[in-house]
Amino acid sequence: MSDHEQDLNAVISRILEERKAYPGALLPILHGIQDALGYVPREAIAQIALGLNLSRAEIHGVVSFYHYFRTSPPGRHTVYLCRAESCQSMGANQLVEHAKAKLGVDFHETTRDGAFTLEPIYCLGNCACSPAMMIDDEVYGRVTPERFEEVIRILKEAA
Amino acid sequence: MSTRIYIPCDSSALSLGAEAVASAITIEASRRKADITLVRNGSRGLYWLEPMVEVETAQGRVAYGPVAIDDVPALYEADFLKGGQHALSLGPTDKIPFLQKQERLTFARVGITDPLSIADYAAHDGWKGLKAALAMDGATVVKQVTDSGLRGRGGAAFPAGIKWKTVLDTSADQKYVVCNADEGDSGTYSDRMIMEGDPYVLIEGMTIAGVAVGATRGYIYVRSEYPHSCQVLAKAIALARASGYLGPDVMGSGKAFELEVRKGAGAYICGEETSLLESLEGKRGMVRFKPPLPAIAGLFGKPTVINNVITLASVPIIFANGAAHYRDFGVGRSRGTLPIQLAGNLKYCGLVEKAFGVTLRELLYDYGGGSASGRPIRAVQVGGPLGAYLPESQFDTPLDYEAFMAIGAMVGHGGIVAFDDTVDMAGMARYAMEFCAIESCGKCTPCRIGSTRGVEVIDHIVAGSEREKNIALLEDLCDTMLNGSLCALGGMTPFPVQSALKYFPNDFRAAPRSKVA
Ligand SMILES: Cc1cc2nc3c(=O)[nH]c(=O)nc-3n(C[C@H](O)[C@H](O)[C@H](O)COP(=O)(O)O)c2cc1C
Ligand code: SF4
Ligand code: FES
Ligand code: FES
After folding, report:
1. What is the pTM of this model?
2. Reading across the β-sheet that carries B53-57, which strands appear in turn?
3. ipTM here
């Protein structure tokens, strides 16, 4: 086992031990793992199945049902662009096109330098300040194409 | 003496730079040796003015906004700590017309208090409702809720008291109270504002529900798109517990109520109550067949009160002021107030809490100030992605559950999204179908497959291929979805589609409407 795999397994076991007795533990466990690692690795599915006494297929079924959980590592930052109605009324479709062109990726893809993963999101509750986006846990409102570029530039420079 | 300054920590205010403004004001204060106390409040809901800074003066609170960091030195120069005049002055906050005309019951404290201060909450009538409810027996509590006329604010508008009574009357070794904080509808953010701006009102409302029906555990299911709300709630629950408002002995009553936050994972369907319960149990969010009702066999098969955030947050004031006080607001069978959320292409987007009966036109123009772009408002969607699109001819409809039903629309969670005349309604209809396809739980064929077919058929219509035949096909498809779906995702996605087709048929013509720049 590589060091990396050992670390991964340690994190997964710790979260599993901490949370497996919760009523309805699976989502809290998956959240814990994704918060710690950025995604839910294959190794986790097997371990959770063992820990909760469920089949791997069941765990996989849950992971794949929810848009938020991912099974591959994201870029350093995840950019969630709101596609929902209120944001559309204020130019979200144009912003999406602009962002895709600027980052050179489509939705669910990561830029070549590994800096940004682009994801669609359906409302951030920021509809009074549409169009909206979230980068990691930070919400942005009234995002013009210029503002988008500025935020991306700042995050790139901070790297 | 230290001057109190209020700068919101509400997500939307933060999304416009409130954090940077707060630190600029703090830094400038220490540079000038000004003595300030910074309070991070919720938002008053005047989002075109955020970040809005309030200062407590001898004449009450005065507001400035929208404040950018570059404005901060000039605000100090203008002596804003004493309420001095500045280009961004808005005068006394309470006198801002958008706020002054409202009837804030559920939102009475939001933007006024420090969301996490128990003392502040108590000083502004907090815990009064719970105290009153603890002195009653369960049946009396439930009767008060029924008498208030409160109906569910999550969408279906089912009377809250009737739901609670079913749970009360069902005996079990364990019962639950679940708060639906999935707030998935575009154009809605009132749940978020409560969770971030006055979390104790939700905690108090849930505790009253627990005490009433005999439930000792509660869960708040918050969507993962609201990380900030999750944090505020977790802190508020810990503080409330430490002060004895939650825990084994709520306010010394001998009654127990424990509360926990659970995070969703980006599935719109998990806002549907049975799907939410499945998700809380750690499963895929597949919609359950009803019966049994969640009130009889809900979470982990136990009797469960499941209500929306606003429904539960409206309960404390019903007990603090009496059921009749709440019931006196509103019209017909829509009693009380509704926190309405103005969104999309409007000049003044924000939260308007009003008694039922206010018209769409008043909301769009008197409050909303017309479109943000300055172009005519062409279509409005009320009640989220499953709500019909309404043209100008319907703008005089009062917000009232029955009046909206009568025009084939719904009030839903009270979100209003406005579109100007550049909107492509065939595109919006297509999006409605696409959204349904993305979010379907997959249980019913009409919803899962029909929605994908719907996208294709709309594409054919817009491309001008066999137009009449394809429009008939789309109508058929909508009928099948309407009649053959287990829940409202498949069952109501036809509403935005059919209304777009009915009111804006020209948008479905082959030549796309020339896009006005
Ligand atoms: C597809 C779908 C999505 C829903 N989303 C939500 C939601 O995000 N929040 C909510 O409170 N209710 C939502 N509902 C309504 C709930 O099923 C349920 O009626 C509500 O939680 C009951 O609480 P209330 O009576 O207090 O409104 C949704 C319903 C459907 C069919
Ligand atoms: S209508 Fe759609 S979302 Fe609702 S139960 Fe059926 S498949 Fe699931
Ligand atoms: S629709 Fe984009 S934030 Fe709500
Ligand atoms: S479950 Fe098959 S149509 Fe509803």
Report:
1. 0.97
2. B36-39, B3-6, B53-57, B60-64, B89-92
3. 0.97
